Structures are given as structure tokens and as C-alpha cells.
């Protein structure tokens, strides 16, 4: 940057949008800044606007906006971008407060600071000249050949969020007290915009996101589908259901069930990341969906198949899903697309149940069947909530799985009547030729289990089933 022979008497400034340095100075420049911030909807936009406006309003050669966390300062935007390694060292290096006294003082006092490597006549300041500012900052300015630096804190919600640093070269005037006032007003405007945007983002998160999984909710999924259909491009809806959630809740508790739902969300999120423009959402309970636009059904199907296979769920659970596409159905309303995808998902669940019934080795030996049934049933009952319905459900799910079945139900006799009402059911019924139903009655309760056709269901198995149902009911009050 060379030796100094003459200093200009006015700041350089920029000429954005046809505005001169004079137009962007003083109150007028701050008014322009306020309008820029008002148009920002993301933190990144606020940061960029703050850097650009600081260069304009303060007539600076460069500006760095930094985020400060845990007393560590990290530059998040540099204006204008610089390839000069010396400027990069001064403006873009991440550093801690114990390395830069000026940063520690800013965090403690929340006050701006100014440093000069040259005086008003363009002469280098003498070492130890306290009027030039912090010694470390002065030396850094000297290393890059810059003349003056000004930093103001950005205070958001009564905490130092970050800082705005502007630098002038040797051919511009030094920063003075009026520049400090302007920088602090600009930093305050930026802080207000950051607080507003952050609050808006939190509100959007609360309104649009599922709190358990972090995915979008049903409302957002509906909006995504409507927008996709309105575009006229091919729209796909993938409806997903979790096979095994009820069993996990009954046997391992609802915390494990919540972990399972989060695992499902992770699978859907990965699938959405692999499909441009896709929206992953939790509809409710164990139902999830994926909405895509301008993507062929074959691409969506391949992505889902690959992702589901690559990321298996814990506790032996699985995802059944169905896909509906406007390429097949034509122009339809969103609700019809969701309904068709749900029907396809149910068909997939039935196919999965039939395949499991065919591939699961039947427990044909009665001794082996009783041993496995007693073990799995006792564990399930012991892990369930201490009430009749949760215990019977846990037992029914465990017995169904042990005996190679696909569905179960728990029914209760209505008081003073021979009529039974279904209080819970699970699984997905397969074709009747592949399973048979075992019924166990105890007091007012009936448990129905659809087991593999080849499974042993003789006297020993029936005795074990009755004993386990009795254990589930004994010493537990009515729910």
C-alpha cells in the first residue's frame, strides 16, 4: 500500500444503486440501511446488508461482520471479498478474547473502539501511543498497511451477538467520533433486524414443524402438495407408516417409541435431501409423508427404496410406504393424491406381512413353541405399563411375532352383555389362507392372535397362552 504523501479529506464511499457517497451518508444513509434491513427474512441476509451498508455509510474500504460465541470471534461475511492475504489476516481470522484485548473490552463494556496506524498527516503512529488505540489492533493495521479501523458491538436481546468492523485505507480520513456514532446506530439497526428475523424463524418453526421429529407438519405438507399441483409439473406423494411402533411402545416404553419415530424422520429427511424440492413431513402418530415436484415417479420410488434399505430402523421396526403420482392419476386434488398414496401404503403393508409369514420359520415343534412363547410373552408383559390393556397388547404383539403371525386384537366384554368391543389391534392382516386365528378368553377379556398356518397350536401352546393372559390380568385394576 506504499508510503503516504497525501491524505484525502473525504471518505470514499460506494455508489450502490446510483447513489453517491453524499447520498449514503448521515441520516439518509441510515434510512436506506433501515429499509434494507426491513426487507431481510434470514440472518444471512441481515449480515450481508449490514456489511454492505457499513461500507456505504461509513465510506470504508472493507467491512467484516463477525459472530461472537463463547468469547470466540468468527467472521461470517466480508465486504467486499478480498484476495489480499494481509487483509484476510486482519478481517477474517477466527480469534478468542484472550488473544485480542479489544474484543475482551468490547464484550465487557459493550462499547465501540477505534484504532489508527497512521496519524492525520499520514505518519505512522509511534509505538506505545495510547491515543492510537489498542496496541494489538494498531500492529495488525500496520501489518496490512491500513490506516484506521472501527468496531461496534451488535447487541441482541441484551447479549453481544457479534460485531461490525470497518477499515479505511491510508488514502482515506481516519475514523472520528461522528463515525463511531454512525457505526453504533447501524449496529443497533442490524441487532433489531436479527432479533426480528430470529423471532420470525422461531414462530415459523413452531407453526410449521413437528416438535418431536423436526420434520414439517401436516399443514406444511398440504401446502407443499397444493403448490406442487399448482405448478402443473408431475407431483408425487409418498405415504409412510411404521410397522412395529405399537410393539416397541408396549415392550420398551414410549421413550423408545419416540426414538423410533425420530429414526423414521431421519430416513425421510435423507430421502428428501436426495430429491430436489422435496418436503418431508410427519402427518401424525406413525404416519409420515414425502411430497415431491417435477420428479418422475421412478426417481422417487428408487430413492425411497434405496434410502429405506440403507438406513434400517431399530428394534426390528420397518417402514411401509406407497406412492401416488399425477403422471398416473392425472390432474387431481391434493386430498385425492394423499388418499391414493395411503391406499398404496396399506397394500405394501399387506405384502410385507404376507412375505414375513412366508419367510418366518414356523414354530412347528410344540416344546420349542412353548419355550419361545413363554420367554417373549413374559418379557413383554413385564416391560408394559401396569394396566390390563397395555399388558394384553404387549403379550398379543409378542405372541403374534413368536408364532409367525401378522395381526392381533384385544377385545372386552361390555358389562351385562355378551357383546365384545375391540379396544386395541395391531399388525396388518394377511390372506386367511396363510394364517389362522387363536382365541384366548379370560374373565371379560378376549385376545385374538393370527398365527402362521404351520405354527404349533396344540394343547401345550394353548395352555401357555392361557397362562400368560392370566399373568397379564392378575393383580391389575381395570383401566
TrEMBL record:
GGDEF domain mapped to chain residues: 233-362
Q: Which CDD domains match?
A: GGDEF
**SUPFAM superfamilies the record matches:** GAF domain-like (SSF55781), Nucleotide cyclase (SSF55073)
Do you know which PANTHER family this protein is assigned to? DIGUANYLATE CYCLASE DGCC-RELATED (PTHR45138:SF24), REGULATORY COMPONENTS OF SENSORY TRANSDUCTION SYSTEM (PTHR45138)
Name listed for the protein in its UniProt record: GGDEF domain-containing protein
Amino acid at each position: 500500500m506504499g508510503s503516504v504523501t497525501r491524505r484525502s479529506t473525504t471518505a470514499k464511499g460506494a455508489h450502490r444503486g446510483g447513489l453517491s457517497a453524499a447520498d449514503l451518508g448521515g441520516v439518509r444513509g441510515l434510512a436506506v440501511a433501515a429499509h434494507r434491513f426491513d426487507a431481510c427474512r434470514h440472518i444471512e441476509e441481515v449480515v450481508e446488508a449490514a456489511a454492505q451498508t457499513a461500507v456505504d455509510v461509513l465510506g470504508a474500504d472493507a467491512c467484516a461482520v463477525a459472530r461472537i460465541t463463547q468469547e470466540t470471534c468468527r467472521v461470517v461475511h466480508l465486504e467486499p471479498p478480498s484476495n489480499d492475504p494481509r487483509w484476510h489476516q486482519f478481517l477474517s481470522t477466527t480469534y478468542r478474547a484472550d488473544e485480542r484485548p479489544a474484543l475482551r473490552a468490547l464484550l465487557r463494556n459493550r462499547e465501540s473502539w477505534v484504532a489508527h496506524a497512521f496519524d492525520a498527516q499520514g505518519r505512522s503512529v509511534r509505538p506505545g501511543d495510547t491515543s492510537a488505540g489498542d496496541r494489538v489492533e494498531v500492529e495488525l493495521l500496520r501489518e496490512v498497511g491500513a490506516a484506521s479501523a472501527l468496531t461496534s458491538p451488535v447487541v441482541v436481546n441484551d447479549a453481544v451477538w457479534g460485531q461490525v468492523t470497518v477499515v479505511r485505507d491510508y488514502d482515506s480520513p481516519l475514523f472520528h467520533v461522528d463515525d463511531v456514532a454512525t457505526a453504533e446506530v447501524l449496529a443497533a439497526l442490524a441487532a433489531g433486524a436479527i432479533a426480528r428475523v430470529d423471532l420470525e424463524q422461531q414462530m415459523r418453526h413452531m407453526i410449521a414443524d413437528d416438535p418431536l421429529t423436526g420434520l414439517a407438519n401436516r399443514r406444511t405438507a398440504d401446502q407443499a402438495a397444493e403448490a406442487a399441483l399448482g405448478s402443473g409439473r408431475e407431483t408425487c406423494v409418498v405415504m409412510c407408516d411404521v410397522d412395529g411402533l405399537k410393539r416397541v411402545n408396549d415392550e420398551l416404553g414410549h421413550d423408545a417409541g419416540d426414538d423410533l419415530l425420530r429414526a423414521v424422520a431421519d430416513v425421510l429427511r435423507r430421502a428428501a435431501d436426495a430429491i430436489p424440492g422435496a418436503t418431508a413431513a410427519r402427518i401424525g402418530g406413525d404416519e409420515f409423508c414425502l411430497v415431491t415436484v417435477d420428479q418422475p415417479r421412478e426417481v422417487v420410488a428408487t430413492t425411497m427404496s434405496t434410502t429405506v434399505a440403507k438406513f434400517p430402523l431399530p428394534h426390528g421396526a420397518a417402514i411401509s410406504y406407497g406412492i401416488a403420482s399425477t403422471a398416473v392419476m392425472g390432474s387431481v386434488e391434493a386430498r385425492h393424491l394423499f388418499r391414493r398414496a395411503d391406499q398404496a401404503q396399506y397394500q405394501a403393508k399387506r405384502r410385507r406381512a404376507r412375505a414375513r409369514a412366508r419367510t418366518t420359520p414356523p414354530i412347528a415343534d410344540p416344546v420349542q413353541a412353548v419355550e419361545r412363547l413363554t420367554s417373549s410373552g413374559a418379557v413383554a408383559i413385564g416391560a408394559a405399563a401396569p394396566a390390563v390393556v397395555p399388558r394384553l397388547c404387549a403379550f398379543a404383539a409378542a405372541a403374534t411375532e413368536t408364532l409367525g403371525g401378522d395381526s392381533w386384537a384385544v377385545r372386552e366384554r361390555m358389562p351385562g352383555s355378551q357383546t365384545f368391543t375391540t379396544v386395541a389391534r395391531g399388525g396388518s392382516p394377511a390372506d386367511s389362507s396363510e394364517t389362522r386365528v387363536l382365541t384366548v378368553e379370560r374373565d371379560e377379556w378376549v385376545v385374538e392372535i393370527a398365527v402362521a398356518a404351520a405354527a404349533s397350536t396344540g394343547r401345550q401352546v394353548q395352555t401357555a397362552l392361557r397362562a400368560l393372559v392370566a399373568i397379564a390380568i392378575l393383580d391389575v385394576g381395570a383401566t
